[in-house]
Amino acid sequence: MNKKNSVFAARTLIALAVASAFPLAYAAEGTDAADQASSADSASKGQLETVIVTAQRRAENIKDVPMSIATLKGDKLDVLTSGAADIRFLAGRSPSVNVESDYGRTFPRFYIRGLGNTDFDLNASQPVGLVMDDIVQENAMLKGFPVFDVDQVEVLRGPQGTLFGRNSPAGVIKFDSAKPVFRQEGYLTLGIGNYSAKTAEGAFNIPVSDTVALRFSGTTQHRDNRVHNTNPNPNTGTKDFEGYGDNAFRLQALIQPNKDFSALLNYHERDYHGSATLFRANIIKKGTNDLVDGFDYASYPSDGVNYQRLSTKGGNIRLKYNLDDITLHSITGYETLKFNSRADVDGGYGASYAPPYGPGYIPFAVETADLLPNHKQFSQELRAESNYKGPLQWIGGLFFFNENIQIDSISFNTFAPGNPQNPQYAQQFQDAKSWAAFGSLNYTVSDQFKLRGGVRYTSDKKEFSAMRVEPPKIAGPFNINNTSHNLSWDLSGTYELDKTTNLFGRVATGYRAPSMQGRLNGLGDKPSFAGAEKALSFEAGIKQDLFEKRARLSASVFQYTVKDKQLTAGSGGINMNQLINADKVTGQGVEVDFQANLGSGFSATLGGSYNDTEIKDKNLFVQYCGNLGNTAPNPYGCTPTNAAGPFAGTSKIDGNPLPRAPKTQLNFTLKYSTEIGNGEFYAYTDWTYRSSYNFFLYEAPEYKAKPLAEGGARVGYKWSKYEVAAFARNITDKRVIIGAIDFDNLTGMLNEPRTIGATFKVNF
């Protein structure tokens, strides 16, 4: 066998081995197949366009980057965000990615390869970093900014501790907005849907001069309440649920006096108002994860006040200057927000000591509000990179981060004897400072073999205090000050097997700074603290162009270990969290991405992942729902199945998978397009599937999500500068419980129901 044939055979065997080991696990890496041709020539050949990413802070072909990456853009983004979908639309759209929330549209929680954080406190950190226009969005309230006029979304799986660094041991999700260009262009999209939904999105780009261009883009989204409150209380202002108004805009200015210097200025705002997540008491059938008989999605009784308000403002300045052999970057960002959310956490009306009550048994009334009256975030990055020709390339830089937070957590004892509206509250103050120095080297060993390595030193300092106020009594303040240091590194390589196939391998470390929480429920409570977690990850894979670039395959296997993993445990009987560290958490799995132009107007993507996670700590135990040291199980709570812990009402969690981490995720899209008249008709369908997962650290049948398959569709016609389309999301109207409250009774939350609508778009 000659060398050419042996290379071909090796390439084919690798592809077949991956496919046979995971036959249905594929996903859309790179652009959607709908965004195919980067030129008229490639379009005529039906080739997929070359995908350019900035995962390693340089513009590169995705095939040459030695890590697991997926991107979303173009038509696929338009389809997935149909009906004003919030950022949770990313769940399952890329291998190993999940997104969920206990706050609805305002507090998304991200998971990659099973690693995430279920904490609902307002200073909770996440092991998945979110970067918007090169600015890290640390607070979860910043991470829910609406997705509009976005050029590309990149999902970087595995630790990103070297070049991004800010609390990203699981990975990074990176959004890049469409930037100003030196030509006049724009678009306007109007939409309507069920539940009286109304949406508008648009962008207008105008060159002011030969050196200055402006781009304004914005969105407004509105939906009426879709759940009727059958037990309104005029004294507290209760009303119907799940309506909202969400408005956001972005103004950018590009100043480019010459080819060597550019300044990109960005200012953005968001204003959101709506109802908080609707918690529904006793909707889970005990001993199962089924909805109770006779459940009605469209109506629910509650006596609590329910609202949510969020406003964010931010700006950034990105400067770039090209010298002869070096490019200099300065990235300055500032974000601020205010948040106020109040919800009826007990999920019903009344209480056992204040009848009437329901639905089902309400042991005690719980209504709380969480506020961020003060939040400020400042970040500064200075970076230099080589731009000369040669086998050695490098990047080096400095990073500074400062965040100030005040959190007020209020409990309203609605039925407190003699004082029905006496609020009690806890206050938290956190000042987080961090600085880092980082660098990376790329070295071309040969035309086929390239190596990369990087290192980052990080210093984190947090000053935290919390106090509890029950007029006239005060507990605290309790102070926790911590300084931590870390050295993260990574080493990776790419080997070109032939012109169509690259093999890659990567070993990387990640780090998450210590965390503090002070949601104090009583005068005897104290804040909780979790030390820094550190991750070590290994992955290897293949990236391959097939059928003369009409198809693309990417596959990887990975294994990681996280030491001192930060976890969030429920209290067992009250609405608060407890931070803990597990000795170790492990994970391993497979991810495969595939996309293809099938011909005759058809294009498709297939994708999926398998993640096996495990908590390893024989001494770790947590309280479970509704049991505060009681020897007898709570008859209105869950039925835990783990081994009993050392104290009554506790369960051991050694050997359990991580919460909210489905083992299997699959996705599929299929598009058909054809010319009709003077335009293009298209039909697009997309589907996701995820297996079951635990809601919490312990296992119980009531708190195990059912497997879920959801589909969407969009049908439209484009002509000249116009487009009309009809869409549907969750077209089978599948209703399942996707989250729960870890105390009191079997209170749950549901997925989004079916939404349908139509849009009209004009380009100019």
Automatic annotation (TrEMBL):
Residues 62-172 form the TonB-dependent receptor plug domain. Residues 1-27 form the signal peptide. PROSITE patterns: TONB_DEPENDENT_REC_1, TONB_DEPENDENT_REC_2, TONB_DEPENDENT_REC_3. Pfam families: Plug (PF07715), TonB_dep_Rec_b-barrel (PF00593). InterPro entries: Beta-barrel_TonB, Beta-barrel_TonB_sf, Plug_dom, TonB-dep_rcpt-like, TonB_box_CS, TonB_rcpt_CS. A motif (TonB C-terminal box) lies at residues 747-764. The keyword Iron applies. It is found in: Cell outer membrane. A motif (TonB box) lies at residues 50-56. Keywords: Cell outer membrane, Ion transport, Iron, Iron transport, Membrane, Receptor, Signal, TonB box, Transmembrane, Transmembrane beta strand, Transport. It is a multi-pass membrane protein. Residues 292-731 form the TonB-dependent receptor-like beta-barrel domain. Belongs to the TonB-dependent receptor family. PANTHER family: FERRICHROME IRON RECEPTOR-RELATED (PTHR32552), TONB-DEPENDENT OUTER MEMBRANE RECEPTOR (PTHR32552:SF81). This is TonB-dependent receptor. It comes from Duganella qianjiadongensis.
